[in-house]
Batch of 2 targets.
Target 1
Amino acid sequence: MSIFIAIAAFITLLAVACLLYPLLRPAPPDGVSSQRLNTAIYRDQLEALERDLATGKIGPDEHEAARDELQLRLLDDTDDSAAPLAQQPAGFWTAKHTAWVIAMIMPAGAAAMYVWLGNPAAMSPPPVAPSAAQVIQMVDTLAERLKANPDNPQGWAMLARSYKVMGRLDEAEAAFVKAGSFVNKDPDLLVDYAELLAVRAGNSFEGKPLALVKQALALAPQHPTGLMVSGVAAFQINDFAGAAAQWEKLLALLQPGSPDAQQIQANIDEARAKMGQLPPVDPAAVGAVTPEKINEMVERLAQRLKSNPDDLEGWARLARAYRVQGRIADADMADARAKGGPDLSKQLKP
């Protein structure tokens, strides 16, 4: 973008300079005046008299009389009151004023014309997502660098998340272990690690995954994914009060009336119904929060995005859910849509 602006500015300034040069260059000497013209004529006549005197065509007396007459006529014709023939009276709208107007209007007009007829958004094109081969190459390069320099917990954490996205769960867990205590400082990493362990345990958050989620919420009490996962974990062990409490915190962070808020509200209602605070919910409609139930929730989100493909936040949420389920290809498609890529909703599995 900066290169384009620099080139456009240079071309505009060059065009302005070409227009201003004729207007601002020094004016040529004054044009021929009547004084100069008469003086030249009388000078030629005096020279002719001198030649006639030298050749004897006229005598000294005739020469003197003729010279006096020419000098008197010259004095009359070269009077200072005579105005130059080529000089014109100066007005307000001078060449300098014209130059100033051009210098101000032309750059502004060029910019306005580009905004009107051009495409300013093209100066900042959307980033192009790397291909799968490029991603694999970058991850492999990072892994080789970490083998040569293993004392890099931040690099191991980055590698762990990359392996998790790629579905290489065993390698992802090993990388998380090598990241060590660095993971404990970042709630995002803690939740990612918990999701990884839960997937490997059959989508169960009991044990260490739940402990990691609680640790993440201790660092960031309003972490959206942490609240969602914490509610699911509580529901799985029949702690319906705990599930409702966590989802209510999450609901307060969502836009009222949004599809996500409606889904979380339905989860809260289901948890309260399990506690006896609301009329029982039809089991055929909701069921228990099991791996199958989680799959249904993910598929409902996918169907909703087919009707509203411009919900980029929804696509990002769907991509995360697919990764938790190990559906890496679907996660990649949802990720591409979340980054403003083409609508891939028709390619999602029903």
Note: The two ends are 42 Å apart (CA to CA).
Target 2
Amino acid sequence: MKLGLTAGLIAVSAVLVGASSFHLTLIDSRPKEGAVLAESPPEIWLRFNQPLDIGKCGIGVRGPTGAVELAKPALADSVSMSAKFSATLAPGEYTVSWLGTPINDHAVRGRYKFTVGEDGAIRR
């Protein structure tokens, strides 16, 4: 009986650990969350823990005056996407919103903020 219970607990644990490792997660970005940049970045770059289905992904940026125009997101490699800014960003706080969809899985959304040109410090 104990052997069966132990095997069952191990199986459930393996399923829970395995399920959590399949969830799409943002693991790196440029600019980084909370960064204070002295000047406008040329693009948004996002790296995930799984290969992406770029046709089902997106990046949006909002700043002090509203939505910021970006080029269509493209794969930088199988787990990274980027989008170039159409113009230089004015000083202020920006929110990056992203939609990431791994191959053969469901979409995950996220967001983070960075600041351009305020206080002159550079923290990437």
Note: The first strand starts at residue 26 and ends at 30.
